Amino acid sequence: MNISYIINYFIFIPAIGFLISLLIKDKEGNEKIFARILEVSAGLSLLLSVSFIGYWLFHGMETINLKELTLYKTHNYEFVVDFFFDATTATYLLVGSMITFLVGKYSVYYMHREEGFKRFFTTVLLFFLGYNITIFAGNFETLFIGWEILGITSFLLIAFYRLRYLPVKNAVRVFGIYRIGDVGILMAMWASHHLWHENITFLKLNNYDLVHDHLAGHTWVGVFISLMILIAAAAKSAQLPFSSWLSRAMEGPTPSSAIFYGSLSVHFGVFLLLRTYPFWESQTSMRILIGVLGLFTAIVTESIARVQSNIKSQIAYASVAQIGIMFIEIAFGLKYLVLFHFAGNAFLRTYQLLVSPSTVSYLLRDQFYHYQPKQSSIEDTYSSKLKHALYYMSMKEFYLDVIINKLVFKNIKKLGGYLNLLGIKNILYSFIPFYIISIYIRLNNTFIPDEIIALFPFGFAFFGLLMVLRAFSERHQPRFAWILLFLNHFWVALAISFNDDFDLEEIGIYLSGVIVFGALGYYLLTRLMKLEPNHFSLYQYYGHVKEHQTLSIAFLISCLGLMGFPITYTFIGEDVIYSHIRVNEYYLAFFNASSYIVGGIALVRIYARLFLGNHIKTYHPTPLKTA
Amino acid sequence: MHINLDKEVFPILLRLISNYLDQGISIWHFPIVDKSFLEAIKHIENNSKESLFRTKKAKDLLFENDLSITKLLKLIVGKEECFEHYLFDQQFAHPGWSGMVAVLESNPKLLFDKRKITLNDFIIIELLLEIDVLYDKYDDLWSPLGYKANLESYNLFKEIEDKELFTVYKIWQEAYEWTYYQDVLSGLSYSFNNQNTTINDTSFQAFFCIDDREISLRQHLELVDEKCETFGTPGHYNIVAYYQPDKGKFLTKVCPAPLQPKHVLKEIHKGKTIKRDLHFSRKTHSMFWGFIYSQTLGFLSGLNLFKIMVSPNYSAGTNYSFDHMHKDASLQIEYNPKKQKNKEYQEGFTIEEMTDIVESILRTTGLTENFAKLVYFIGHGASSTNNPYYAGYGCGACSGRPGSANARAAAEMANRSDIRSSLEKRGLKIPNETWFIGGLHDTTRDEVAFYDEELIADNLKNAHQENLAKFQKALVNNAKERARRFDNISLSLNKNKNYELVKKRSLKLFEIRPEYNHATNTLFIVGRRGLTKNLFLDRRAFLNSYDYKQDPTGDLLATILGAGAGVCAGINLEYYFSRVDNHRLGAGSKLPQNIVGLIGVSNGVEGDLRTGLPYQMVEIHDPLRLMTIIEQKPEVVLNVLNNNQNVKQWYANGWMNLTVLDPNTGDFFNYKNEELVPLQIELNSVNSITNIEQICLTSRENLPVSFINKN
Question: Which pTM does this prediction carry?
């Protein structure tokens, strides 16, 4: 009996739950309905997964691959949604459904009467959908869909208390780090297009000879892909140097911290490595690198965990240290141990986070009866100079936060700052004629030599990046930043169009979403500007969601559309674009990838600054910034 | 170039202070804890390869001999007239930590693991860190911040001008308050004119705490047994002491927080065991043990999660009121100089002291004759799970602890023949056959436990058994009355099922509202029970029994107000302020909160400590100031106030309202401008009901003051 079609249900159930949840009105009386939808979706998933996995275990545990549907196809490109099922999927499915079900069940009580009840349950359902898509993904493209959903839902859940400064600030930060990870996947996808000349399925990666043959001639491509996968995995699993985001993500209601950061979301780096294991298993250097990264992370985060005086960050860092060990286990090829370790760690940290409010009564009681004045720790055996230095280093989280901030975000801002001369007028006045001329050249080139034409894509992609950098540093006019981000896509399209076999239809696919959502976003910004002329810039957080809820949701969707989130064809276009970047055009890939990261962050920032954070108006109680 | 000092300084400053003060969360505690905060930091700076500061200049400042706030302010602010304003803004940017430091400076005993911290040290470090950031960013190229400030435009310490808006606010608040007070006074007046005659052959007498959560139980008890009599007195039963449970390494205060006890009450309990739970073990956070635990204990956690969901049960995270003092334990109440071990506090009480305690309980409440055969002294506590605010649910008169030890000790004292004879010498005769029994009422679970029941004389055992059944019935009714406030319990649910659901709330890991505590408290009534016995007050009043006839001088009233006014005002104002601005004076939502150093909670991992009460505790509270109503002659009350400045300031400064009911005439007098003036108020007709259950079915909102007409 072929039961592989059942896999579809694991996607449908949360998807339907999410859609129903979206349609139900947000009012206090409906609380129970939202909770019930999550409960039923996760419960059904759980039941189904138990029976499915049971059946599967007794029928040979064969790896299943299910070619689902082709979303887009041209003569040399195909975007296929493909599903895959093996022991890794099984473990993640079981743990994920169980924890989501439990947390859903608890949240009914926990979230009772909390403002944003609908938002919470709907976002958790969307997260659950992203989770299932990711673990069932049979190729990078499908995985990327799920991956993007996980990224945006994480942002929304961290910023759940959207009218407070710290959750919003941290959500933007975490989103930035996720975005860096996403680039790893994009680049890995790009390089593997060229390695395999198709959208390779994970099933085929299991074919040792095939992988071996392909890699034989392209060692560097192989190493590059593996490295990109590792960057994606490290960012998602809070390994070095990204470790500091995890504790900062503990801003939402306790159950959401529990599912996201304690247990499920943070183990996706491990998942990615397990999923691509056959690809890099024969690359010894890669295995060493993974192991060493895991080891360093474990040591560093362990020291940080030891000095934490608040319970949530202690659990977060302890969890990261365990994930570091999982990286080591993977490097040694101990696949099943990793799965076991993952499940145990996920449950343990979920439980610890959920009962974390009990810590006070428990530890105080424990101390009341068992107090010993000076408890020595192993560090007491070190010399005091070393001990104190290590303590301060751990307390300062080994400067990890500062490093990421300085290395990435400050530099981007600086680069953008150099471009301050680019004002709205000179960009528009130069862009339109320049663009038209370029299109003309593209279509009827007779007079420019090919060698110079070959430089065009480079130049255009660079212009695109400049737009994005400028948008990132723009503070005064949100609409200008928006236009820049919008135009970036046109430069990218133009750059790619100079590559040989790129046709108009593909450009159309790519720009369709951009145009629609770009226009919508611009309209919404204009509206907001008219409504709030005195509170409209990117210098600070304005919290306009308090008064303009619908506008806020619509603008969030526009941002998603413009950043290539899988709600429009632009998402596929993004992938099509990469398939047209030749393997030696790494600069083009690099520029595009940079635009992708910075553009995404800039968009989320525009949204956050205008709509989230402490509300600028104070006719109602507002929290302190430090609250 | 623009700079955000707060953003640069807070992360490190708040982490530093919380690590230093941490009471036991971190595995590796702050390296130097036996020195003061500033000295500890200096010591580490001298002995470390890594500095707290980014620049050498800031570090050098730390070691200058004349290091002081003023000196640092001169450097960073420059202009002297801005100093106060700067400090104010700086400290009120993180009021939680600044407040905590200030409290710990004045009361270091609050910590188990002692630390030497002063606000001065804390501010010095904060200023140094700010200066450090400035040096780091601009080297020497910065000028003191004060030179750019324009103080004229906004002076924080200027006398506040009286604006029309404030007058409007004031009128609005008073109208809001008096709308309710008017109903209450009308009810009291009606009740005053329709008092039942005293009960003959009282079946039993029961004392409860003045707590607003006890009044409904008292009423239900009186409705179940018309012959019983109940009294209200602060739940520490006049025992001003620390309590030390067996095997406990510390003392815990069981009297109103402002009092400084000289005694300690010790529990003796041989077979005591303290449960431990590996989930809270710090070991799970270490690399190696974490590896082992996550693969063993981790799966157990998964099972546990399911188990708790199916049947919530007592767990390590439960704070269970009956754990405070074990039923099988005993208390060392008598002072024995030979056995005295504690160097600071006297262990137990002398005969003289015990006589004072019992006398005061009985005299202030007016029970000096007509003793029943059984008299119950009942303390109260609360149970909840996964709740960092558990102490806020306990007995305010016992510093947030359950009142079991106090009630039990007071009952034991009252039963002693030596105390009774010494009481008799003071003119207070307790009949020989009267027996006192201590007990504890759990306000969340609505359960009662009684202590030393085996000591009850055989001829009274039956009566006690009968009383138990009455208590049980009253508790079930009480749970029903309370449950109308819980959104997720149906109003029409039958009593017994309702009772089970109410009990479960205390065990559920995710029940944010195990009970509503003091929410809705608005009244403090000092007078005879007859005034309120048939009045349905919707659990909004603190009731202190007091018989004006036995207190012509007002001395007893002074005692009552001395203990009660502060406790009630403290509770009422905490709710008031947490409700009016929940974000800044309260603690905001409870859901994202994180435990910091076992001394506070914050949002997420970077936030300041939260102050006040969370939204979920005050959401049903109306911010009304407490109205105190005293049944006594106005001139006596005025005299008491003028002789007790500590009590008077609450009323004179408008933190609470005061109305006096003259027992001779039934007229009300209102305290205004330090005078008691006849109250000009039109009394309403009083809502009349036949039973409590019926009115409770009508709404989840506040219910009108009503008179219970049983027939």
Answer: 0.92
